Amino acid sequence: MAQKHPDILEIVARETGISRHKVESTIKLLAENTVPFIARYRKEATGELDEVQIRQVEELYSFYRNLEQRKAEVIRLIDEQGKMTPELQDKIMCATKPSEVEDLYLPFRPKRRTRAGMAREKGLEPLAGYLLTFPGAGSPEEEAYVYLSDAVPTVEEALQGAMDIVAERVAEDAEARGWVREHTRSKGWLVAKARKPEAESVYRDYYDYREPLGRVVPHRILAINRGEREEFLGVRVEVEQDPVLSRLNRRFVKEGAATSDLVKKAVADAYKRLIAPAVERDIRGELTEKAETRAMQVFSKNLRSLLLQPPVRGGAVLGVDPAYRTGCKWAVVSATGKLLEVGVVYPTPPHKKVEEARAVLERLAGQYQVQSIVIGNGTASRETEQFVAEFIRTSNRTGLSYTIVSEAGASVYSASKVAAREFPDLEASERGAVSIARRVQDPLAELVKIEPRAVGIGQYQHDLPPKRLDEKLTEVVESVVNYVGVDLNTASAPLLSYVAGINTTLAENIVRRREEIEHFKDRRQLSKVPRLGPKTMEQCAGFLRIRDGENPLDATAIHPESYDLAYRVLELIGSDLSEIGRPAIRTKLAQVKAEEAAAKLGAGAPTLRDILDNLARPGRDPREDLPPPVFRTDVLSIEDLRPGMELKGTVRNVVDFGAFVDIGIKNDGLVHVSELSDNRVRHPLDVVAVGDVVKVRVLSVDAARGRVALSMRS
């Protein structure tokens, strides 16, 4: 009886825990809409699935669609050989993993020249068949004698050729290969050994390493893989052979026959030469893929947290790109990010023109009313920080403070076409100083100009597949940009290009149109942008905000398609557009019961709740709910630290084994996962995120290696 073939929608529903109806609706919407648009403006259709859930549905559906396509291709290829049977076709159709499909296809796959293939060419296939008949009497040697020829001069060669054919048959048995793979997964070990034990390297912890496959954590997989690529480590998968051979012999060998021992040898050869290496490749590939996926997830969450850092509003900012010989490039930007002045000072070795640099900072602080100084964390950062801290301490200007920001990607931006278009008259290093200053004013707007992988908050990002990594990180940037919303009249083309439905060409067209009309006054004016059609308008309009426009609703996340509903809500509570955001209307809106009002107005409750929230708080920036960066007036050195000292710091990076925290010294301190909480922590991201301001206690200091161990436990 034929088995029921998999239902993709049902499988996706089961694996995600999302109802089949919601999965089906989401798949239909994904055919013509962007994920941010669906998540924000099609909540009724999806049952309020968030972006993560929608992308999960999308990925799983795509995976199983591709699997079905591969099944169809395999069936066609086998059928063309005239070897397809109803039983085999059913097995292929019922497979739920790519490995199962490939195992079933293996006997029919075109092969390179193999030992079994050469034996067949010599006419030894019937002899292999004889071995597998397991005769109760007779002599295999006598049987082999019949097959001697110029190509097969000896009995030994004839029997070896027949055993090679048997070994290949065993190796290509889908059930046997599948069992060995599962057994190795559950019982096997990952083993690493030093190729040169005397060589010093960062992989010393893995010079004599052995761990069950099921316990190996993702970051160790990536570290071991890198050590292997750099030829410090030899790596293999090990499993006890006897249980495997015993199981294979039970499947393929009939005991007590004249050919039993020969077939056992063939089975052992099949396992050691063909099955085990293939299974090892499969398992290591799986481990690597899982490790890469985990690393991407960590990177993605770190990037999201970084992009969601709250903007520092008000006042001019002085950005400093530290250096030694070439001097510290600086740039002053206005409260709106406009470049006011650039220059260079030389307070660091070898020049040490401290007084001259101090005079420049005094002038800038007075002339532009600078309150915040932002220093990049690159070369000479430490010395520059000491100079700035001393300047603040001795200056008679009140309210001055500084912070350190990661300058990861600043050099990438400064040398980019985007930077050249933005500041054609500046040198690359001067552009870097501008970028550093803007990173505290609006981290999102500035960081979107940089390739996501260049922002320096990942783990083993250089070991990850570039295409997959770029796709994943682009998703994160798109998600954050659309979550926050974009000011249509100030956004750069790179920022606009991440808005739902808008590509690079459209983003540049929007900027050009904005320059032509000076500024947008109404969302409807977007329809005049070249190549921005009705569908794109639908996708992007709700994420583009116009402050001080003709229609106050244009400053909110309310989609134009819901303006009529918003007007009816205002009518229901006895208010009008002029009252949006005021305390009086908030009181009225708070009294509205969304479900009842939705039923009365013939609308969906999720959409109505969003409208109520936006009418109460128009133009709200969700980033403002997060803690601002830590600004300092003095500087610490690693020599100042003592065990037990309590400090406040900012989380700079989160990895599988802990979190790196900026506490005001050159190197970040590490809070190991075991020190993140009094409770057991499954993963550091469950406790902290990039940008979090945390209280830490110094556990130990290794000044020679520049390492500081911290704790967040009580």
**What is the name of the CATH class of the largest domain?**
Alpha Beta
Classify the helix fraction into a percent range: 40-55%
**Rough shape?**
globular
Oligomer: single chain
* Count of all domains: 5
User: What gyration radius follows from the Cα positions, in whole Å?
Assistant: 33 Å
CATH H-level name of the largest domain... which superfamily? Answer: YqgF/RNase H-like domain
Descriptive overview:
This protein is α/β, with parallel strands linked by helices and 714 residues long. It folds into 5 domains: 8-108, RuvA domain 2-like (Arc Repressor Mutant, subunit A), CATH 1.10.10; 115-188 and 239-299, Tex N-terminal region-like; 317-480, YqgF/RNase H-like domain (Nucleotidyltransferase, domain 5), CATH 3.30.420.140; 515-625, Orthogonal Bundle (DNA polymerase, domain 1), CATH 1.10.150.310; 638-711, Nucleic acid-binding proteins (OB fold (Dihydrolipoamide Acetyltransferase, E2P), Beta Barrel). It contains 29 helices and 15 strands. A 5-stranded mixed beta sheet has the order 6-5-4-7-8, with helices on both faces. Helix 1 packs antiparallel against helix 5 (51-80), helix 5 (51-80) runs parallel beside helix 7 (98-105) and helix 11 runs parallel beside helix 15. It starts with 7 loop residues before the first helix and ends with a strand. 39% of the residues are buried. The mean pLDDT is 92.
List keywords for this structure.
alpha/beta; Nucleotidyltransferase, domain 5; single chain; Arc Repressor Mutant, subunit A; Tex N-terminal region-like; 5 domains; globular
Topology:
Layout: H1 8-16, H2 20-30, H3 35-41, H4 43-46, H5 51-80, H6 86-94, H7 98-105, H8 115-121, H9 125-131, H10 140-145, H11 155-171, H12 174-187, E1 189-194, E2 208-212, H13 218-229, E3 233-238, H14 241-252, H15 260-307, E4 317-321, E5 328-333, E6 339-345, H16 354-368, E7 372-376, H17 381-394, E8 401-405, H18 410-414, H19 417-422, H20 428-441, H21 443-447, H22 466-484, E9 486-487, H23 493-496, H24 504-517, H25 534-540, E10 544-545, H26 563-573, H27 583-590, H28 594-601, H29 605-616, E11 646-655, E12 658-662, E13 669-672, E14 693-702, E15 707-711
Parallel strand pairs: 4-7, 7-8, 9-10, 13-15
Antiparallel strand pairs: 1-2, 1-3, 4-5, 5-6, 11-12, 11-14, 12-13, 14-15
